[in-house]
């Protein structure tokens, strides 16, 4: 990265906003500045009706190396440390609560909070050469906050293996465990992510927003409460203009024209 280049870049095209981590020399470590920019970018996107899908990518030899340990070691006192982890938690929950789906495009290693970042995204595609790890245990700092996202997307035994051993898993293993959707050859990664982003961007933004929110909320509920909540959501969804348009278009064998409401 040359001096003056942004540490987070945004590019918008055809309803897809691509956010690119741009601290390649630091392996895209999540400094306070980078997390602050990510939080602001996600907040802006949440209010931007033109954005249908978000792609999270990175420049350089790693996707994300987790927290900036040099910066962390320089912090003075409990409050300063707690503030960094609180900021990180806000970024991760902002991804989950964003109205638009977020797709991680992982070209290389994602460790600790970088692995957490991948696990927090709605979808994740990775190069076959990418690896994933929660290696905090190796330096006396258990990956407790990455554990929150990781344990919600992979099985308990698999999560604990990563957390207790600190050993990286390859992309094929990450796919089989559910940490990522697909591991693909490096030369087709961009195309695979772009195709999925375009596919989702072509859906009703209102329907996708309603569905994403309901998905995460029902996961936190018991079975009866989950069905009750989902039934309420589907009732409201059924009465929306886009649902009426979508059903009419299906019955009339024509493409729908979405209104986003």
Automatic annotation (TrEMBL):
SUPFAM superfamilies referenced in this protein's UniProt entry, alphabetically: ClpP/crotonase
Listed GO molecular functions? Answer: hydro-lyase activity
UniProt superkingdom: Bacteria
The protein's matches in Pfam families, at most eight in alphabetical order, are given as:
ECH_1
UniProt KW keywords: Fatty acid metabolism, Lipid metabolism, Transit peptide
Keyword flag NAD: no
Looking up InterPro entries in the UniProt record yields: ClpP/crotonase-like_dom_sf (IPR029045), Enoyl-CoA_hydra/iso (IPR001753), Enoyl-CoA_hydra_C (IPR014748), Mitochondrial_ECH-domain (IPR052377)
Q: Does the keyword Lipid metabolism feature in the UniProt annotation?
A: yes
- What GO terms describe the biological role, i.e. biological process, of this protein? fatty acid metabolic process
This molecule's function is given as: May play a role in fatty acid biosynthesis and insulin sensitivity.
The entry's family comment says: Belongs to the enoyl-CoA hydratase/isomerase family.
State what protein this is by name.
Answer: Enoyl-CoA hydratase domain-containing protein 3, mitochondrial
Q: Organism classification, top ranks?
A: Bacteria, Pseudomonadati, Pseudomonadota, Alphaproteobacteria, Rhodospirillales
């Amino acid at each position: 990265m040359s001096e003056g280049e942004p540490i987070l870049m945004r590019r918008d095209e055809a309803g897809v906003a691509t956010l690119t981590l741009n601290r390649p020399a630091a392996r895209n470590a999540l400094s306070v500045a980078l997390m602050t920019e990510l939080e602001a970018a996600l907040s802006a996107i949440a209010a931007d009706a033109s954005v249908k899908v978000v792609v999270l990518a990175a420049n350089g030899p790693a996707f994300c190396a987790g927290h900036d340990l040099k910066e962390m070691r320089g912090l003075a006192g409990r409050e300063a440390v707690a503030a960094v982890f609180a900021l990180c938690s806000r970024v991760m929950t902002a991804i989950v609560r964003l109205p638009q789906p977020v797709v991680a495009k992982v070209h290389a290693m994602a460790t600790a909070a970088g692995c957490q970042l991948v696990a927090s995204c709605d979808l994740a595609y990775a190069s076959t050469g990418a690896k994933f790890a929660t290696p905090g245990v190796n330096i006396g700092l258990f990956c407790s906050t990455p554990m929150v996202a990781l344990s919600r997307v992979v099985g308990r035994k698999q999560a604990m293996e990563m957390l207790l051993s600190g050993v990286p898993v390859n992309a094929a293993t990450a796919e089989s465990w559910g940490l990522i959707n697909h591991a693909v050859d490096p030369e087709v990664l961009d195309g695979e992510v772009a195709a999925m982003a375009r596919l989702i961007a072509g859906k009703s933004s209102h329907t996708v927003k309603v569905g994403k929110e309901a998905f995460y909320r029902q996961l936190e509920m018991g079975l009866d409460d989950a069905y009750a909540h989902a039934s309420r959501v589907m009732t409201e969804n059924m009465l929306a203009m886009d649902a009426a348009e979508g059903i009419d278009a299906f019955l009339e064998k024509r493409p729908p024209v979405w209104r986003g409401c």
